[in-house]
């Protein structure tokens, strides 16, 4: 069979009919991410008794893999990537094969009955220039006919059609618009996930530090409860010796009851803080968590960081903030919509070209051969279509696209202002928390000096145990105030990181992807 007499046409036939190779890559299953983290956590829990001791970074890593909202977002990303893969196949050939068997009888008393069978491979290809190419190959055979003079038994016809728009729908910008839109939507989805991750991690950070704070408050409440019990025992002993009246036991008992209530309330708040953290990082209720990270109130200088200048922080925020980058992508989407609306107002002017190879013969094989042996028929022309009657609709669409583009620009400007206000507020809060931290540190120094003085006075008989206990209680309260100030300062730093969009960079974390191995999430 001499099919290579027209190599250009045969090459087009191969390109259009042959399906594109399937992408062997398969988006990673988020369930594998969660299963790996589950295995690591269970291994850690089996290695020792509860509670589960986690550093803040480990807690953030667990939250990345197990937070219920983030897990749902990861599943959504699988769908998003599948949609992008489909959009990227817009310029891949699409082919079909149609098989048909037909029996036909003409009208009238002497109608002729004909039975035919046909095979019809066809393919189409969209080009980035907006052109559409189609290849159709029809092989038909007459199986039976009642007509006295029957036409050749078989026919083969190969037709290649190409249409290239010159005005509406033409050009790379318009032709690639669907793919460009898909990539912009994918960029929006990635930024939306990043924004959700940053927000979730900021909540986890504050919940973790809140658990540290509540643990410290529980310790202080237990110390206060022990002091109240000791004071009641001392007074009871004095009453038994006759040195105090029985009525003097009432204040001590009242103080003990008050401290027991406070200790129970403090423990309840601590348990609630633990449950909040467990919920955020996606662990099962009943797992006890013990923060491994601690805040040393005697080394405050180690907590302090240099705040960036306002302009530097703004540059970072505009470069890293997912919300601001989303607004820029939205501008590009609205610009694309406006371009498409403007294109829809153009006239339709197309160049059309067609090539046909045809062969007839009693033999199907010979009909195919003759089709490729004969000189091809061809056509070339221009086709002009002028839209009529819907000008108002098209103008409305263009006007709406222009308005949406301006609105997107205004939203970006408004967001820029909001980010600046948020960064300024975060910097101001950080500076204020720094000052409060220094004041709390000074108060702790004064409380320590007061304890030292009272102990010296007690050694020479110029003070009492009650006064020493009072200043020691004030010292513990000063330590608690300093811890509160230190955590507030760190939370202010986290708020600034969130405003600047650098929470992930601050903790050296990455959003799980199809190639991320999270089996090492727990060290």
Automatic annotation (TrEMBL):
Per the record, the coiled-coil ranges are 213-276, 430-495
Query: Transmembrane region positions?
Result: none
Q: Which UniProt keywords apply?
A: Cell outer membrane, Coiled coil, Membrane, Signal, Transmembrane, Transmembrane beta strand, Transport
Q: Which GO terms describe its cellular component?
A: cell outer membrane; efflux pump complex
Q: What is its main location?
A: membrane
Q: Which GO terms describe its molecular function?
A: efflux transmembrane transporter activity; porin activity
Subcellular location field: Cell outer membrane
Q: Does the keyword Membrane apply?
A: yes
**Residues spanning the signal sequence:** 1-22
What InterPro entries has UniProt attached to this entry?
OMP_efflux, TolC-like
By sequence similarity, the record places it as follows: Belongs to the outer membrane factor (OMF) (TC 1.B.17) family.
Name recorded for this polypeptide: Transporter
